[in-house]
Amino acid sequence: MPPETVRILCPNLTCRKVLAVPGTARGKTVRCRACGTSIKVPTGRGHSPGHQPADKPKDK
Ligand SMILES: [Zn+2]
Q1: What's the CA-to-centroid distance between 11 and ligand 1, angstroms?
Q2: Is 57 within the bounds of a domain?
Q3: CA distances from residue 47 to 5, 10, 41, 44, 51 in whole angstroms, order as listed
């Protein structure tokens, strides 16, 4: 597996810098180099495990 890079946007409105962190930093907190804001790296890719959509129609 190639090393994954996660891009996150700095939540500091006066900074808004895009940070590229390694995939190993998922779930951890990184610090923006530009403004020093601590940013939590998201762990998933848009879908959270455990939450399943009700795509199955209820059988009656
Ligand atoms: Zn920043």
Answers
A1: 7
A2: no
A3: 18, 21, 15, 6, 8
Q: Which domain holds residue 14?
A: 5-40
**Centroid of ligand 1 to alpha carbon of 21 (angstroms):** 13
- If one counts the domains in the chain, the total is 1
pLDDT of amino acid 50: 56
Confidence at 36, pLDDT banded by 50, 70, 90: very high
Cα 38 to middle of ligand 1, angstroms: 8
What six digits make up the tokens of 38? 């601590």
Is 28 within a domain? yes
Global model pTM greater than 0.70: no
